[in-house]
Specification:
Layout: H1 2-26, H2 46-57, H3 75-87, H4 89-94, E1 96-99, E2 106-110, E3 120-125, E4 147-149, E5 152-154, H5 162-177, E6 186-191, H6 200-210, E7 217-220, E8 225-226, E9 236-243, E10 245-254, H7 268-281, H8 293-300, H9 306-313, H10 315-327, H11 330-336, E11 339-346, E12 357-366, H12 372-382, E13 389-393, H13 394-397, H14 412-424, E14 430-435, E15 451-453, E16 458-459, H15 461-464, E17 473-475, H16 476-494
Parallel strand pairs: 3-6, 3-7, 7-15, 8-16, 9-14
Antiparallel strand pairs: 1-2, 2-6, 4-5, 5-17, 8-9, 10-12, 10-13, 11-12
Bound molecules: zinc ion.
Zinc ion binds near residues 125, 160, 161, 194 and 221.
């Protein structure tokens, strides 16, 4: 009997190993989404693009706070508009230009010859974040000088997001010069206040909606080709198919106040602390097995080391292990779930006074798998066992913004973008991804279900620290990649399917 059950166990183990290996070798073999043969782009000069990005950086289109730029402080934006017109004459001859009413947001229309084709909406933003006072000297090239040093253009906006804006205009100029006339209408929208969650792009999308415009897809910033990708250690392109939302809640503990010389054991401050710890220990559930994460891991599968690939290929067995490892890395955790970030704590106003009301402000970044109401329910449940604790909407009851919808990967738009991403650095696979910050692209959801976030450029993780940081820069080569990539996107979407 013992011998028989050992044989049985051995056979079961062999079968298990067989299943694990079968799943592993079959995991991530095929890319997510289709691919297309890309058309030849027109002649592009990376150097010219680099010089023009340097010039665009010199316009200090800095937004600091909601409502910027203030009336009378729009000079840098208007100068940028005039510079665009002077620098891209062929593009301006081919397209009509307008300002979205009551904003500095630019909308260009390149009318297509076939009105039955839905237009393309290609987006970038004109404004940039400020440079922290006192850090200007840490830059290799001045943040607003537009210097090109050793093959890199330095300055605020180089990657966020004037590189895209200039890349789009370079593509339009090259296409117009080559005699290209689109069948499908091409729209460029350049928001003026993205960095302060402004209303320019939102108003622009509303304007398009009022005209009955429903684009085939909208493309904005958000992802690029990363070398190396933290997922595989190898270069990999990411196409953002969704972005997170946010909501801020106040967790409030109330209790008797009084003098701190005779404190109770379970004061409001102590109970608030307990609530904060409970929220940290009870995170929102992971959405590891739902898109975008599931698709992203599958697309990365063929480039993963064997053990990692085996784990992802056999989620039924290793889900807990993978979740644990991803949760240990802040960016990994943010990819797979709604994050919980206690940011502001408040109690009494004086050291010897007990708090009658202690509050913790907690900022949540909402994963597309969750809604704001689910988060409120989660927080209420987790803190329900703690006496005198309630949950309120933060900032005087202002609701947040839900996560975006998840855009499909089974259409021509995604196939074209993934093909362009893979051509940016041949040999690097493209995968769908979740954008952790907010972009203007989310507004485009009002007029198209196909919203993507991708720039055809190649960055290292170190260069990514330039986003809103010191030494923001991009390579001269990237300006060639951006212009070529955007031109190929326009051409590939114009070609008959
Ligand atoms: Zn940006």
């Amino acid at each position: 009997m013992i011998r028989n059950s050992l044989i049985g166990l051995g056979l079961a183990l062999a079968a298990l190993v067989g299943v694990l290996l079968y799943n592993t070798f079959n995991y991530g073999g095929a890319p997510v989404g289709g691919r297309v043969t890309l058309p030849e782009p027109p002649a592009i000069s990376a150097e010219r693009g680099a010089e023009n990005l340097a010039a665009a950086i010199r316009f200090k289109t800095v937004t600091l706070a909601s409502g910027d730029p203030r009336p009378g402080q729009d000079g840098e934006w208007l100068a940028l508009h005039a510079w665009l017109e002077a620098t891209y004459p062929a593009a301006h001859a081919a397209m009509t230009k307008e300002l979205v009413p009551n904003t500095l947001t630019l909308l260009y229309t390149w009318p297509g010859s076939d009105p039955s084709l839905k237009p393309l909406l290609l987006m970038a933003h004109q404004d940039v974040v400020p440079v922290n006072i006192g850090t200007e000297g840490d830059w290799t090239g001045g943040p607003f000088d537009g210097e090109i040093i050793d093959g890199y253009i330095y300055g605020r906006g180089a990657i966020d997001d004037k590189g895209s804006l200039v890349g789009l205009m370079e593509a339009a100029e090259a296409l117009a010069t080559s005699g290209f006339q689109p069948k499908r209408t091409v729209l460029f929208m350049f928001g003026h206040d993205e960095e302060v969650s402004g209303s320019g792009a939102e108003a622009g999308v509303a304007l398009l909606k009022s005209r009955g415009v429903a684009p085939e897809f909208a493309l904005d910033e958000g992802f690029m080709v990363l070398n190396p990708s933290p997922l595989t250690g190898k270069p990999m392109g990411f196409i953002g198919i969704a972005e997170k939302g946010y909501v801020t809640l106040d967790v409030v503990a109330t209790g008797a106040g009084g003098h701190s010389s005779t404190p109770p054991r379970d004061s409001s401050a102590v109970r608030l602390a307990r609530a904060v710890v409970a929220l940290d220990e009870n995170q929102m559930p992971s959405a590891l097995d739902k898109p975008p994460a599931s698709d992203m891991f599958r697309a990365a599968g063929k480039d993963m080391p064997f053990a990692q690939r085996m784990a992802f290929a056999n989620l039924w067995l290793f889900k807990g292990v993978i979740e644990g490892q991803l949760a240990d890395v802040p960016a990994g955790n943010a990819m797979i779930r709604t994050t919980t970030a206690p940011t502001m704590l408040a109690g009494s106003a004086k050291e010897n006074v007990l708090a009658q009301r202690a509050t913790a402000t907690v900022n949540f970044r909402i994963h597309p798998a969750n809604t704001e109401d689910e988060i409120i329910a989660h927080v209420t449940k987790v803190t329900s066992g703690i006496e005198g604790v309630s949950v309120e909407l933060g900032k005087e009851g202002i609701r947040g913004k839900g996560a975006s919808a998840v855009s499909p990967t089974n259409n021509r738009a995604y196939a074209v973008l993934a093909s362009v991403a893979e051509a940016t650095l041949p040999g690097s696979p493209a995968a769908p991804g979740l954008v952790l910050g907010a972009t203007d692209g989310r507004y485009a959801e009002a007029i198209t279900p196909n919203v993507y976030r991708f720039q055809p450029s190649l960055l290292t993780p170190e260069e990514l620290t330039g986003f809103h940081g010191t030494n923001e820069r991009t390579s001269v080569e990237n300006m060639g990649r951006l212009a070529r990539g955007y031109a190929q996107i326009i051409l590939a979407m114009d070609a008959p399917e």
